[in-house]
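User: Continuing from earlier, I have the next pair ready.

Assistant: Great, send them over.

User: Here they are, in order.

Assistant: Folding the first of the pair now:
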Amino acid sequence: MSQPYVVRYVGGPLDGRVDSLPSTPEDPKQTVTYVHLHGGPKIVHVYDLEYAVEYGCEYRLRAGEGDEA
């Protein structure tokens, strides 16, 4: 049995989230956009892909992101 591919999120509203995939994706997304709708202004957070040899990859909150759009 192979190890699952782990994706971690660092910073912003997804901080601490961990997703497990059955295998390494052939072409992982370079960025992930998270849009928070809460009855007020729309808030957009952008995460950039970084590889972590130990477990897979992590998406880190882009500096300066999370401002109201």
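And the other member of the pair:
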Amino acid sequence: MALKITDDCINCDACEPECPNTAISQGEDIYEINPHQCTECVGHFAEPQCQKVCPVDCITLHEAYVESKDELQKKYQQLIRIK
């Protein structure tokens, strides 16, 4: 499942540099996560690094992008082929 940033985001800039897939970028009002690039850090780390550093816990599962660990691993494999 991809992650999303909620409206509780305080634009602290902590999450963006932690994303190994460069899925996080500054949106119009708050940071946003591109669900097509988010693998919940599968392939890189044991846990999502953005959630780990977020001081307000505003990064949650994106219910519109339900993916298993296997699907996230396949997405990771596709992303590293593109780079």
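Worth noting for the second one:
The CA atoms of residues 42 and 70 lie 9 Å apart. The longest strand covers residues 3-5.
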